[in-house]
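Write out a record, focusing on structure:
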Amino acid sequence: MIGRLTGRLDYRASDHVLISVGGVGYVVYVSERVMASLPGSGEAVSLYTDLLVREDLLQLFGFTTLVEKEWHRLLMSVQGIGAKASLAILGAIGAEGVSRAIALGDARAIAVAKGVGPKTAQRVVHELKDKAPGVMALAGTMAAAMGTPPAEVDTDAVIDPVAAPAPNPVVHDGAAQSDALSALVNLGYAPAEASRAVAEAADGGAGDTAALIRAALKALAPKG
């Protein structure tokens, strides 16, 4: 299994690139989002890869993060979603967008991808919804392992005493809470609102990272 390639970007095509590694050129298919993030021809490049093996076909697909790669693998497990559709979804809304859309059951966000209809998008959400917190937890754990600075709440910010919850919104204890907070911040939520949601989830009895993320997302979801 080829899990990662690091080499020189030789050229780009419309949907794939050629990466030269040790004198061997690897054709790697990527999403539009990944393509836009790559350096120029002749420069160093590194991508996580997933190898699709069929009787008459071997294809490599490239991703900038392990979370994106994991979503690709999960998306392809859904009936009606092949490699092309998976890359279209990831290219349209990114790995963070996929995490948010599936966790919140937002099939419309999935359906914005080219070639993905409403019924297929609904199937994606239905089949993968329970797996979203786990992938998001992976993102939080990876961020911590790579030394990403923990999110901090601005203590000088003015908080409405009526709207603010009684407990201190900053999460102080537990690796699970820390990972959940990191995952939510990586999704684009403000540190203050993310920490309040995680604290609320913990007070409600949620224990592990996946449960904390699921409960926090429900708290953060638009009301009405």
User: Anything to note?
Assistant: The first helix runs from residue 32 to 37. Residues 145-173 have pLDDT under 50 and may be disordered. The first strand starts at residue 4 and ends at 12. The chain has three domains: 4-63, 66-131, 135-220.
